Amino acid sequence: MNLHEKIASREARVGVIGLGYVGLPLAIAFAESGFQVTGIDLCPDKVDALNAGSSYIIDVGHTMVGAVVKNGHFRATTDSSSIRDLDAVCICVPTPLNKNHEPDLSYIEAVLSELKKHLRRGALVVLESTTYPGTTEERIGKGLAEKGWHAGIDYHLCYSPERVDPGNKKYGIRNTPKVIGGVTAKCLELADALYRTITDRTVLVSNPKVAEMSKLLENTFRSVNIAFINEMALMCDAIGVNIWEVIEAASSKPFGFMPFYPGPGIGGHCIPLDPMYLSWKAKGENFFSRFIEVSQDINRNMPRYVVHKISELLNTKKKCINGSRILLLGMAYKPDVDDLRESPSIEVYELLREKGAALTVNDPYCAVMFDADGQQVNVQAEVNDAELGDYDLLVLLTAHSRYDLPGIVASGTLILDTRNAFAGLDAPNVARIGDVLPY
Ligand code: SAJ
After folding, report:
1. Least CB-packed of 2, 91, 172, 296 within 10 Å?
2. Cα of 83 to ligand 1 centre, how many Å?
3. Distance separating alpha carbons of residues 89 and 157, to the nearest angstrom
4. Which of 163, 186, 206 is the last residue of a domain?
5. Which of 180, 206, 232 is the last residue of a domain?
């Protein structure tokens, strides 16, 4: 039976390397579609938790994991030699930036060295990690060529960007189209067959570079547009008009406009990082993307603008940041997730800490947070309305849906709203970024 037939019959042994917010949902989806799936991860605690039927990813329920472990369709392991049993391997490892803001492909390189040792002849390899155009062929393709293996002949090689949106209840693997680029037509055909078992629609492109670039275009589009609206917010603040009302009015245009919203900056594992992969690659070809550089600069400086607004607001009460009791609401990078990575809320926290504020941090999703010195910060899980009157200022940084906004307004304490979360409430004590101060 050839690989195509084994995929169709679900007899193909599928592996997912990297069991994070991308790899785990993918592994579970393949297991639920009938494959026998091996999840490979470096972290023994994750492996043990999964094999015990529990999940550590907010979008993957314990019951989902428990069911596929119990029916034998999924097992997790730290042993990468299990690659030798696999017909298809999906790589979902991190692609962070190093301290010079350059791509760090060390995780991909580590997987490559295991593939060189254990990959089965004829197997399909799909890279999903977000990376610059060319990575799949220049790193994995060339790496395996060193042992005389050529994609499309000795094994099959594709790139297919992950499109996981943590916390998104509407779009998941099944209903999010999957872009796939293959080194050869045969590679593409096999990956298409594999992904069609878990997604309603695949989007086939002519090579891995197109697929790699499409992902970076998606996220750079967001980063640039968020930076644009952040600059519009700064402009509206300067000229004395409410950016939030302006966006609402512009959004009434049924064509040719797409709203983005100002905020305290951009966080997460994608938007702050992906454009830097693209600009790094472009620089290598002597192309300097001014859009990306300027956007990164604007977004990175939003926490400073928020602290400036905090200072201005306290000043209206003849107070300064130093010594003021400030409650920060929402440390995760976006609502209803437990992810602190690159969160601008943390940057705001650090800037205020430097200025001597007496800070309290609240987030119902993030129980553990560390400051820049590596010290654990106590994170309040619940908002105690009775205590809100003790603060000089409340700052809404991430609008978790659990927050009782009317209750927070009712405290009467001064509030800086960085997300327009209190829109529509009768809230004379609320000031917004991107607007003039109400006092
Ligand atoms: N943000 C703003 N203003 C906006 C939109 C976002 O300040 O108008 C901020 C958010 O607060 C957050 C950061 O930008 O700190 C990123 O937000 P995001 O909504 O882009 O969320 P992410 O980082 O989870 O992005 C993911 C991405 N998914 C993948 O890379 C597979 C992105 O491509 C999706 O478009 C995005 O989810 C989504 O649409 O929700």
Report:
1. 2
2. 33
3. 10
4. 206
5. 206
